[in-house]
Fold this sequence. Notes:
The chain is mostly helical. The protein is 84% helix and 0% strand. The N terminus and C terminus are likely disordered.
Amino acid sequence: MLKIVKHKLKNLLKPGKSLSQKVVRSTFWVGAFKVVERTLRFVRTVIVARLLSPSDFGLFGLACLAMEILQTFTETGMRTALIQRKEKTEGYLNTAWTINLLRNILIFSLLFFGAPFIAKFFNNLSAVPLIKVVGIIMIIRGLTNIGTVYFIKELDFRKHFVLRTVGIIVNVVVTLTLAFILRNAWALVWGYLAQSVTNCIASYILHPYRPKLQLELPKAKELLNFGKWIFGSSIVIFLATQGDDILVGKILGIKALGLYTMAFAIANLVATEITHLISQVTFPAYSKLQSDTEKLRKAFFKTLQLISFITIPIACCIFLFSFDFVNIFLGVKWLPMIPALKILAISGLIRATTATGGCLFASVGKPELDFKMNVCRLITMTIFIYPLTRIYGIEGASVTVLLGILSTVPVWFYATKKITNSNFFIYGKSIFPSLIGTFGIVILTLLIKSSFQINISIFLFTILTLVLVYIGIGVIFVKIFRYGPLKEIKVLMQSI
């Protein structure tokens, strides 16, 4: 028995030969990383939120926001272009690495020398040193080994798991240690910097490629030609996803920004983390299937079914348990964010669904579709963001985010339908099992909340019960209708 287990584990540690083997094993490693990362980040957030104030989180968020602005407006799309190319990419690596390094040096310079002006814009000069230190992260990222792009391109996510995991472990250890000592926003900054240094070092340990300064203009032009839509889309996405942060910080102040960013982080846990990592597997897989519509359609709707199975119940639980979670784990100083958290939970669910389109569009060489989808989102948010935020505060900003996400649904549906040559029935069939299961746990949740005063033990017991009930409904659904996400998960586990 022990020999069999060792043999199975040895096979799992291999990247696999066929595309299906690579997808299955990559999905396992993505899931493993997500469990590890979510657990560590949850522990860190709960502890740090009690040690620091919303204003500290607002200061850190402001520094990161400044970095993200410059990152977005200098996006090259190099990594995406390297992953999407079906031809060999070895000859392009040095050029891509050199351009990325030069870009990151430019961003560092702008952050370092522009820190006083950025802080003055938000009426908080105490953010100046934080912005300068965060800028150093860009230099470190620029030096990171470009060879790690093959972890994703070749679906070798076991090494990607190691790379990301060691970084988040260092982040958590450094942040928690300094949070107890410093009791201010610097704990978050140093934790972020330590993570970047660790990832940079690990990238050279895990991949043998050694980049060097080399700039070949024809190759750069070829990569940038594909990346132009990534660049355009990244700007639109940034304005749509971070424009609300800018306005909240400017109009409502640092404390409100801290509350809002925390609410957004919790509510979009699914959209920004789970969906993003699943997309890391599906994008290279879709790219290999781009010429086979039938296989591409099956892969896309299996992905949609899996994401729906995860996102729908989580979003509902965030909505239903928002007060209990914040009160028990974060403390009373975070209670003002609850209305915004509920609204953002709904937008997070829709965002997680429409996010499945981005990797599909890029994989078939049509990244402009993602750009167009996010233009609709940006236009909608531009119309509503200022008046709603001015009148209703962070709740108004949250409503704006929801309206923006809703405006992308028609474009997402039409584009994915056309690419996969599918119909409305297939979409409904993909999410129906998850809707039935979620309806069951919502009823059970309402019964529990009406019968008990929620404390930490009741909360944890309730979550465990809901998970078991949800899985049970999924099993019954598979037994009766012979399909559903649990059937796909069973196949996945058997493959592993």
